[in-house]
Amino acid sequence: MGSVIASGLEYQSFNSVFLTPDSLDWADAPTVADCFALHQPDIVINSGLPYFSAPDSAFSTYAKASQSIARGCLVRNSVCLQLSSFEVYDESLRRPEEGDEPNPSNARGHKVLQADQAISAVNHSIILRLGWLVGDKGENMLSSMVSQLIHAPEQPLNNHFKGSPTTYTDVARVLIAMVKQIDCGADNWGVIHYSAEGFTTEFKYASKIADQLRRQGVDVPELIGKEDVECVHVPNRSGLLDCVRSMANFGIQPRPYDGGIEEMVSAYLPVMHES
Q: Would you say 59 and 104 are in contact if contact means Cβ atoms under 8 Å apart?
């Protein structure tokens, strides 16, 4: 995700610095403080949100890193934009609203909420909560699906829980729009939801990917969709979000959830053939 955001910022007029997760020990507050002193950022984007299947240690590190980043922002009086997840909400909510109180049901959600709470202490911050994420880089819902459809297409997929797959490039577009408006004086802070337009299920989205794989010469059998099996590529719950403020406060129009599938599959296919 971070590299996609960095690529988008390259075409803007901002003087931006992209630091990878391996650039420094983000969980170490003094190290991060030194980084802030060196670069003196006006706006910070924390894009290190792990994919849901990452080990618990990755989410613990994300929470600690967010605490270090929050301290740096408070000292520097920097604006902070934080990527967050729908998993901070009670899974019984079909479409959480931006004003709903978080109530995580698993360890991942609790760690993400800890990260959000740390950043919320920053004077000017946005917690951008996202649903299902897909992209042509890194580990995400789409890359996991492409791998399964090539290596284990007989595995049943969930056809009950709904979500709106949102591309990394779309999230980058949203963040850049927010940064531009903040730079021009926009004063909209707090929790904001963003998801692509429309919704689907794990099975139906995988079927679209399978169609694209077949067009590219990959022999993929008909997929199996069931309502009573656990999700494989996303958390086993609804991933929908009620998105009001991204449009009301920033004028950001959502893009269709099924856009860009052909390009993303084409990017992943060579890598998956080699694995």
A: no
Distance between CA atoms of residues 178 and 180, nearest Å: 5
Q: Are strands 200-201 and 162-163 parallel, antiparallel or unpaired?
A: antiparallel
CA dist., res. 147 & res. 155, Å (int): 12
> Structure tokens of 254?
């959502």
Instruction: Identify the bridge partners of residue 191 per DSSP, sorted by sequence position.
Output: 127
- How many C-beta atoms lie closer than 10 Å to residue 253's C-beta? 8
62 near 116, Cβ under 8 Å?
no
SS3 46: strand
pLDDT in tens, 17-67: 999 989 999 999 999 999 999 999 999 999 999 999 999 999 999 999 999
- DSSP state letter for 197: B
**CB-based burial of residue 38 (10 Å sphere; 0-12 exposed, 13-18 middle, 19+ buried)?**
exposed
